Amino acid sequence: MRRKLAAGNWKMNGMQAxxxxxxxxxxxxxxxxxxxxxxxxxxxxxxxxxxxxxxxGAQDCHMNASGxxxxxxxxxxxxxxGGRAVIVGHSERRADHHESSQMVRAKARAAQAEGxxxxxxxxxxxxxxxxxxxxDIIGGQxxxxxxxxxxxxxxxxxxxxxxxxxxxxxxxLAQIGEVHDFIRARLERRFGAGVGRSVRxxxxxSVKPDNAAGxxxxxxxxxxxxxxxxxxxxxxxxxxxxxxxV
Length: 246
Ligand code: 13P
Fold this sequence. Notes:
Elements: E1 5-9, H1 19-28, E2 35-39, H2 45-48, E3 55-58, H3 75-80, E4 85-88, H4 91-96, H5 101-113, E5 117-122, H6 126-130, H7 134-145, E6 155-159, H8 173-198, E7 200-204, H9 212-215, E8 223-226, H10 233-244
Helix pairs in contact: 1-10, 5-7, 7-8
This protein binds 1,3-dihydroxyacetonephosphate (13P).
The site of 1,3-dihydroxyacetonephosphate has 14 residues, from strand 8.
């Protein structure tokens, strides 16, 4: 069985004072069956590890183990700081930092080599969806961004339509289900049924307390990657509870 995962991506938000939100979450969900992962900015990563049962991840890593890469973090450094996972290939990094699927794949491989879970993000633009190219785009990003080293423990796939991120617009449940079923089928075809069925697939893009329960009923949705609504316990907690209730 795949353990449900509620992951919060804080992006470039959060100060020391924000750690109080983690204390509230940890208290409210101390007996949760759902895995709760917080990906704060790097400045808070180590401090965020103090709030069990919450686990902590980073928002990006470099593909190399160490060296002259000013401003970057290696997977080993994330692990050393207490991180257990890292988001790679978020659409904001693909756009802002010109990251190709090939680079994302190298980052995911580096993360897995250090024992981290790589949360590999993918998603279509509004124009690509309107042109009915969604499954082609996702198929290409899957093939290009996921390394051969993937297992059910070291890979999570996050489907995040770019047009749904931070917009309040969410695909229909049928649209989410179509993409998640497609991702599952592709994972099974490439890695075999054992690994393919054990990889968790998250939906991300404007997940909020009022739409989470519906999204979590969709087949092959194993949880969510939440941006804005993960910044406060008041907003993230009901999403976690909705996932726990599935
Ligand atoms: P929002 O939940 O703010 O739309 O962000 C989604 C996201 O990009 C998570 O990685």
